[in-house]
């Protein structure tokens, strides 16, 4: 293993001469391969904590559990795995308050939503009527102004995209950032001869 030697102050390879398990960690007897200095180093065992996660997908929520290192810091908006499903932290309860981030050891409840797929809301203008739809998409799928999308068996052209801070009328956005897509129905003309 590579460590900074307390004798020669150089980062160098160390030989492990012995290991002794202790209550909350391991005591190593090490020999610096640079200067030959032999010393003991105690390494505290990293503690884990089981966290309660209120996990949501669409209109259903259920309580799940995950295990994380106590010293890790989790933040709202961060992506984590919950039962091997990519999820996004939506809220953190710590000490009876809602916080933006906290150390795992201080977290009471974690709130998360499924994030391996997201719901993209779409408003399709069909003449004088606007009809709302939803599609399921991968968070990184991109939608662009001018794209033709199929919604409920109809084709529509995207003319505006609402993201959290603004409207987009040129370019595109990832599904994870989209609040709503606005599109106009394309009327299919059947040819008669």
Describe the structure.
- This protein has no helices and 20 strands.
- By secondary structure, the chain is mainly beta.
- It has three domains: 2-44, N-terminal domain of TfIIb (Single Sheet), CATH 2.20.25; 48-114, no CATH class; 118-185.
- The strands form five sheets. Strands 5, 6, 8, 9, 10 and 12 form a six-stranded mixed sheet that branches. Strands 13, 14, 16, 17, 18 and 20 form a six-stranded mixed sheet that branches. Strands 1-2-3-4 form a four-stranded antiparallel sheet, with no helix packed on it.
- The radius of gyration is 27 Å and the shape is elongated.
- The model has no long low-confidence stretch (mean pLDDT 90).
Summarize the structure.
The protein has 193 residues and is an all-beta fold. 0% of the residues lie in helices and 66% in strands. The protein is elongated.
Q: Topology of this structure?
A:
Elements: E1 2-4, E2 11-22, E3 25-32, E4 38-44, E5 48-57, E6 60-69, E7 73-75, E8 79-82, E9 85-94, E10 97-99, E11 101-103, E12 109-114, E13 118-126, E14 129-137, E15 142-144, E16 148-151, E17 154-163, E18 167-168, E19 172-174, E20 178-185
Parallel strand pairs: 5-12, 13-20
Antiparallel strand pairs: 1-2, 2-3, 3-4, 5-6, 7-11, 8-9, 9-10, 9-12, 13-14, 15-19, 16-17, 17-18, 17-20
Spell out the helices and strands N to C: EEEEEEEEEEEEEEEEEEEE
Q: How far apart lie the N and C ends?
A: 81 Å
Radius of gyration: 27 Å
Number of strands: 20
How would you characterize the largest beta sheet?
Answer: 6 strands, mixed
Shape: elongated
Spans of at least 5 consecutive residues whose pLDDT stays below 50 are: none
Sheet-strand content, in percent, reads over 45%
Average the pLDDT over all residues and give the rounded result: 90
Structural class: mainly beta
Give the proportion of residues in helices: under 10%
Number of domains: 3
How many DSSP H or I helices?
Answer: 0
């Amino acid at each position: 293993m590579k460590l900074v030697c307390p004798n020669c102050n150089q980062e160098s390879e160390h030989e492990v001469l012995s290991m002794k398990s202790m209550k909350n960690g391991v005591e190593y007897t090490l020999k610096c391969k640079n200067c030959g200095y032999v010393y003991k180093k105690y390494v505290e065992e990293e503690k884990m904590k089981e966290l309660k996660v209120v996990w949501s997908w669409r209109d259903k929520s259920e309580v799940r559990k995950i295990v994380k290192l106590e010293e890790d810091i989790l933040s709202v908006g961060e992506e984590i795995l919950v039962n091997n499903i990519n999820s996004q932290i939506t809220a953190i309860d710590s000490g009876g308050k809602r916080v933006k981030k906290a150390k795992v050891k201080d977290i009471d409840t974690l709130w998360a939503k499924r994030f391996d797929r997201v719901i993209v809301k779409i408003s399709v203008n069909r003449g004088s009527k606007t009809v709302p739809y939803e599609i399921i998409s991968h968070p990184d799928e991109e939608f662009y102004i001018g794209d033709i999308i199929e919604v409920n068996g109809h084709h529509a052209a995207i003319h505006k995209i609402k993201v959290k801070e603004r409207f987009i009328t040129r370019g595109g956005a990832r599904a994870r950032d989209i609040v709503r897509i606005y599109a106009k129905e394309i009327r299919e003309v059947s040819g008669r001869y």
